[in-house]
């Protein structure tokens, strides 16, 4: 079977931090004898426009010259930049046009078109009509939620999803949101992301208490709430270190907040790193905190669970499908630094409780069949249904 995979976000090279989970899915499909051609953007720091990674053929398009002018993917990803930048909105039309032209060759030769996120789905709809090929759209993150609340984006989203043969949200909340748009239930099948069960694992800790965050440094990730919470955590645990791994538009504001609090030596800001290095940081951490305002079904929670870390996260759709409060982690309200601090201090004070939560989390994830091969097999079954293949 041949699949043309369309995605608005993809690593610029093996080990790059940009949406590595899409590459992981494509690699798992290739391991299961699916021929995958990925069509994705070329970033200004990218290496090759055409390459093969572990059996996955990758084809990158450039929509502005030089590539440094491309702003849609800088500092927080495409949805974030479309919201905050008028220039990004101007870029959208040439982006979609070049995207479509690049994808024609691979969609023509494919058995099925698989679009990641609804914007890729828009390109996918035109290719579906042109070549009479089945279209699957996978929704992730906050794109569907934001589009559903926009007067001009909602009808476009609705039209795109109605033209898909199947829609695969990666959490239950998205499934319900899509049903409210009038999409038949029979076309919606929730398929969660997978996770690398070999890469993320518990290892020996150091004596220093390390609190870890991994993600975009943007508003919806709630990073400033975590920094403000850490000022209170530091009062009770002056030896604790906060590590923030990621990049984004809030980076300078976070640095200013840290400086005002006098915590420069206690808060370490680390640029986005490869999954292998994330796994290393997780293995040495004592506590993981994800204070997001919105999420899809965050892979970083999977990774922290596998790393046997006690987890504090906000009680939001997607995240609360993975974390059961006080059973395998702690859930707190959004935009509440005091609640984050209180939960963190409690776990840092009570090693027995923290260890129990962490061990339960790892056990939960290992028994849930959430490897990338498990995810790929679910998609292959859907591909066969969509193409009426045996």
Question: Could you please describe the fold and organization of this structure?
Answer:
The protein is of the alpha/beta class. It has two domains: 2-194 and 371-387, Glycogen Phosphorylase B (Rossmann fold), CATH 3.40.50.2000; 210-366, Rossmann fold. The chain is 43% helix and 15% strand. It contains 14 helices and 13 strands. The protein has a seven-stranded mixed beta sheet with strand order 3-4-2-1-5-6-7, sandwiched between helices. Strands 10-9-8-11-12-13 form a six-stranded parallel beta sheet, with helices on both faces. Strand 8, helix 8 and strand 9 form a beta-alpha-beta unit. Helix 4 packs across helix 6 (153-162). The radius of gyration is 21 Å and the shape is globular. The N and C termini lie close together (11 Å).
What CATH calls the topology of the largest domain is Rossmann fold
- Read across the widest sheet, the strand sequence of neighbours is 3-4-2-1-5-6-7
Radius of gyration: 21 Å
Shape: globular
Could you give a short description of this structure?
This protein has helices spanning about 20-30, 80-85, 85-110, 120-130, 145-150, 155-160, 170-180, 225-235, 250-260, 275-285, 300-305, 335-350, 350-365, 370-385, and strands at about 1-5, 35-40, 50-55, 55-60, 110-115, 135-140, 165, 210-215, 240-245, 265-270, 285-290, 310-315, 330. With about 400 residues, it is an alpha/beta fold.
């Amino acid at each position: 079977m041949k699949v043309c995979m369309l995605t608005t976000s993809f690593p610029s090279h093996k080990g790059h931090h940009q949406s590595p989970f899409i590459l992981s899915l494509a690699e798992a499909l290739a391991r299961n004898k699916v021929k995958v051609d990925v069509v994705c953007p070329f970033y200004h720091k990218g290496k090759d426009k055409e390459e093969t990674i572990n059996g996955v053929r990758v084809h990158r398009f450039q929509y502005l010259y030089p590539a440094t002018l491309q702003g849609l993917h800088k500092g927080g990803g495409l949805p974030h930049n479309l919201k905050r930048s008028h220039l990004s909105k101007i870029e959208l039309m040439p982006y979609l046009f070049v995207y479509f032209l690049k994808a024609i060759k691979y969609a023509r030769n494919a058995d099925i078109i698989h679009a990641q996120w609804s914007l890729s789905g828009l390109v996918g709809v035109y290719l579906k009509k042109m070549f009479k090929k089945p279209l699957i759209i996978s929704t992730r993150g906050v794109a569907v939620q934001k589009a559903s609340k926009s007067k001009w984006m909602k009808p476009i989203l609705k039209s795109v999803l109605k033209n898909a043969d199947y829609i695969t949200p990666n959490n239950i909340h998205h499934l319900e949101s899509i049903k409210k748009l009038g999409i038949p239930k029979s076309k919606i099948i929730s398929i969660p992301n997978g996770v690398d069960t070999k890469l993320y694992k518990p290892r020996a800790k150091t004596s220093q208490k390390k609190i870890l965050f991994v993600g975009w440094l943007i508003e919806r990730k709630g990073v400033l709430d975590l920094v403000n919470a850490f000022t209170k955590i530091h009062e009770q645990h002056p030896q604790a270190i906060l590590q923030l791994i990621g990049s984004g538009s809030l980076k300078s504001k976070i640095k200013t907040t840290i400086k005002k609090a006098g915590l420069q030596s206690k808060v370490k800001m680390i640029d986005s790193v490869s999954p292998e290095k994330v796994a290393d940081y997780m293995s040495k951490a004592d506590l993981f905190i994800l204070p997001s305002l919105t999420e899809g079904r965050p892979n970083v929670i999977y990774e922290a669970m596998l790393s046997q870390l006690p987890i504090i996260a906000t009680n939001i759709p997607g995240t609360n499908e993975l974390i059961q409060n006080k059973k395998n982690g702690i859930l707190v309200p959004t935009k509440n630094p005091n609640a984050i601090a209180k939960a963190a201090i409690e776990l840092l004070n009570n090693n027995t409780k923290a260890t129990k939560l962490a061990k339960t989390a790892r056990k939960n994830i290992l028994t849930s069949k959430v490897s990338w091969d498990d995810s790929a097999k679910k998609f292959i079954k859907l591909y066969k249904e969509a193409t009426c293949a045996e």
